[in-house]
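Continuing the series of single-chain predictions for the mutant panel. This is the parent chain; the variants come on the following pages.
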Amino acid sequence: MTKLGSVTIGRVGVLIGQSLAATDLRVAGQLIEELGYGAIWFGEGLGREAFTQASILLGATRRIAVGTGIANIFARDPVTMLNAARTLAEAWPDRFVLGMGVSHAKLVTARGHAYTKPVSAMASYLDAMEIAPAYTAVAPLSAPPIVLAGLGPRMLALAAERTSGALMFFVDAAYTTRARQIVGPDRFLGLISLVAARPTRPQARSIGDRHTRSHIEMPNYRRSLLRMGWTDQDLVDAGSDALFDAIVPWGEPERIAEKIDAQLSAGADHVALNVVSPTQDRLAKKELALIARQLLPR
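Parent structure:
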């Protein structure tokens, strides 16, 4: 059973989007827990504030781990970030994981901040967290584990050196093997994987392409894909079929489970499933249930 510090997160989790109403978010968290997944992750972007959303999910569930995937360092100062994580870890012992990241330039500038060099910005942020004033509220029994969103070798190395590990997104299994070599055998390596649960590639692409297209357009992901060995031709529009096949598990639940197992075999400790649906305002409940039967112990 995969653990991050004192938090048990299992080998497979689920990423929840930002579009669910709060009532539906609570129900979704309960369903994911009942299905046996080990953790719930979510992003921040320009939607719900990360720690507020974490408290909704923690309060609605009983035992499942909840992680920010990720909390944007430009959205709050280092002391606030650390103290918010401590607050959740004290209120819900051994259930909260603090995932932090630099986000993307357009999401940072939309907040009115300058997007600086990612690795330097994160290193300085971690420095500030280390010298934060003493926490004056009730301390958690166990400090919340911290992981960094990382794609490039320098950010992965920083994650391994300064935190519990790294959380990746939009990577193929070959790169997961390379990332494991960078972070070493003793650091956590997790990833978030798009999943299109449709039996044929055209059907899978019909619901998955808007996600791959939006990520290919982001400079961070584009550079990462080129670093993996993909070509500019593979990154046209929503990406080539070969890229889609490598990045997005699709097909029947058995085939999806095989692709997730391949990422785990390649070196990932944990894979969070971002199961895409035709619309953004619902959770793919049926698909998550079918995949759970293939991936999770009974």
